[in-house]
Amino acid sequence: MSDVSAALTLDPAVVERFRSGDEGAVRQVYRAYSGMVHSIARRVLHDQGLADEATQQTFLQAWRSASTFEGGREPGPWLATIARRVAIDIYRREQRRPASRLDDVHPGTAALATLPPNPEQAWEAAQVRLAIDSLGPDERMVVRLQHLDGLTHAEIAERLGIALGTVKSRSFRAHRALAARLAHLREVEP
Amino acid sequence: MSDADIYADLTDDERRLLASVDGLLGAPETWVEASLGVEQSLVDAIHAERRLAGATMSPPTVAPVAPLAPNVVPLRGRRRWGPLTLAALGGAAAAALVAVAVTRSTDDSAPATADAPLAATALGAQATGTVTAAPQRSGVRLHVRADGLPLRTGEEFYELWVKSCAGDRLVPAGTFHDLSDVVGWVGVSIDDFPVVTVTRERVAGPQDPAQGSSGEVVLTAQLGPACPG
């Protein structure tokens, strides 16, 4: 597993201030990485409230141990590792302590869910989320509508009220950027 | 994906790479966001730990942070509440007077979060704890951490409530065997229901008056300003 990350670019000075517990830096690191952290937690826990709890705990644990974080490194992989571990702890806790009648439990609830993703799956998912978060809002929206909502270029153009050519150019730029940021995921040819 | 040309103009290498993560790009979990209030809850938790450690969190030294994603809408505006008055927890109970320090969000991006110590009544003996209320889109999340209460089992349990200042309206937030680290939810505002209580309860039938609160309060807290009177 490579340490190379497609993460957002965060000013190293912010990471340093985060390590010292600076509130502004905590907020900046949270806003840069909460999407990735929450995505990992949600993938493990299948529940918004529990994933929120895991997200908060992840950053709290990161803050507590920030002084041990090696300066100059990008914090994404470190946070992703903490997030997965925290989410699995919550997952196990929920399995031990079911609090709802079975009839009331949503099918996606952690206690009923399948095993959490392994570290490589979680890491790959984290890389994809970070790559998405690196896109500009317009390009990100097009990618979302394409992949999550399954819309065609023409449907996106209609939905957003923009020209078809604009959708195509944004889609091209977005996917090229995603490919560049995810290049480290490329499997080595035998 | 219904567009045959979604990866038009990309190289074969890029196409292969994106195809390998196509499932992740289309997975709802990839696109989720943490709820409003989590960021502020995090900062509050850090403040709380700093207070416990006898330190003060260093003030922000950076320029205002970037705005949140466009789909995130602040629920409330800028607001700060200072240290609040004492809350009397009287009656026959050996209720403590507690200074409740509630900090409201100073960040336009986050809803107000409040935390307060839980004070034990005589029924709660040596129990201590804290409650953090974090308003979120789906309701108010109440995070309770309490020690010193015996485990309740079988048909006996603890119940978490919020109630109005007048005490005439009561909303349940969850039932628990143990309160060491639990989360309850209510679908009402803590501005209208600022008193948090924990009671001892037993299972009761649907028409049984015992379905409501037993009145056996073991812990209580005041979120926000002290109730008048």
Model description:
The complex is a heterodimer of chains A (190) and B (229). Chain A has eight helices and no strands. Chain A has 190 residues and is mostly helical. Chain A has two domains: 117 residues, Orthogonal Bundle (Rna Polymerase Sigma Factor, Chain: A), CATH 1.10.1740; 56 residues, Arc Repressor Mutant, subunit A (Orthogonal Bundle), CATH 1.10.10.10. The longest helix of chain A is centred in the first third of the chain and has 23 residues. Chain A is globular, with a radius of gyration of 19 Å. Chain B is elongated, with a radius of gyration of 23 Å. About 24% of the residues of chain B have low confidence. The chains are: A mainly alpha (190), B alpha+beta (229). Chains A and B meet through helix 2, helix 3, helix 5, helix 6 and helix 8 of A and helix 1, helix 2, helix 3 and helix 4 of B.
Q: What is this entry, summarized?
A:
The complex is a heterodimer of chains A (190) and B (229). With 190 residues, chain A is an all-alpha fold.
Layout of SSEs?
The complex is a heterodimer of chains A (190) and B (229).
Chain A: H1 12-19, H2 23-45, H3 48-64, H4 76-96, H5 119-133, H6 137-147, H7 153-160, H8 164-181
Helix pairs in contact in A: 1-2, 2-3, 2-4, 2-5, 3-4, 4-5, 6-8, 7-8
Chain B: H1 12-20, H2 22-25, H3 28-31, H4 38-52, E1 83-87, E2 98-101, E3 114-120, E4 128-136, E5 139-147, E6 156-163, E7 170-176, E8 182-186, E9 195-202, E10 217-222
Antiparallel strand pairs in B: 1-2, 3-4, 3-10, 4-5, 5-8, 6-7, 6-9, 9-10
